[in-house]
């Protein structure tokens, strides 16, 4: 249903419902987070992908994005991958649906 919002590119992208649940991901995002392309993150809270200490800032950015702002966060994937790996995550509201478009660019 939301696959049309996911570009077929090397940039990690997800569609997240405004309530915070992941609705769709592309393979680049899954691989960037350390998951296999066949893994299904649908329904998981987006904030659960980040270390506990980073979750409040992710949740706050999601609230601002739901209100219409484009938000950019610098986050560390060590929580998922066991080693420090910086990523820039951009959250954008989608005007035509109650979702946020998430793009992830990692080192």
Mean pLDDT: 86
Share in helix: 10-25%
Query: How many strand segments?
Result: 5
Specify the number of helices. 3
Determine the structural class based on helices, strands and strand pairing: alpha+beta
Radius of gyration: 13 Å
Principal-axes geometry comes out as: globular
Widest beta sheet: strand line-up: 2-1-5-4-3
Q: Secondary-structure element order, as H and E?
A: EEHHEHEE
User: How much β-strand is present in the residues?
Assistant: 25-35%
Distance between the termini: 30 Å
Structure description:
The chain is of the alpha+beta class and 107 residues long. Helices cover 21% and strands 31% of the residues. It is built from three helices and five strands. A five-stranded antiparallel beta sheet has the order 2-1-5-4-3. Strand 1 and strand 2 form a beta hairpin. The protein is globular, with a radius of gyration of 13 Å. The mean pLDDT is 86.
How would you summarize what this structure contains?
By secondary structure, this protein is of the alpha+beta class. The chain is 21% helix and 31% strand.
Write the layout of secondary structure elements.
Blueprint: E1 12-17, E2 22-25, H1 27-32, H2 55-66, E3 71-76, H3 78-81, E4 86-94, E5 99-106
Antiparallel strand pairs: 1-2, 1-5, 3-4, 4-5
């Amino acid at each position: 249903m939301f696959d049309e919002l996911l570009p077929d590119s090397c940039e990690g992208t997800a569609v997240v419902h405004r309530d915070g649940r992941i609705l769709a991901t592309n393979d680049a995002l899954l691989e960037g987070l350390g998951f296999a392309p066949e893994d299904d993150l649908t329904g998981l809270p987006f904030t659960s992908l980040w270390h506990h200490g980073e979750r409040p800032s992710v949740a706050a950015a999601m609230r601002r994005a739901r209100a219409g702002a484009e938000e950019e966060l610098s986050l560390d994937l060590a929580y998922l991958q066991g080693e420090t790996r910086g990523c820039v995550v951009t959250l954008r509201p989608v005007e035509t649906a109650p979702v946020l478009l998430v793009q992830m660019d990692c080192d």
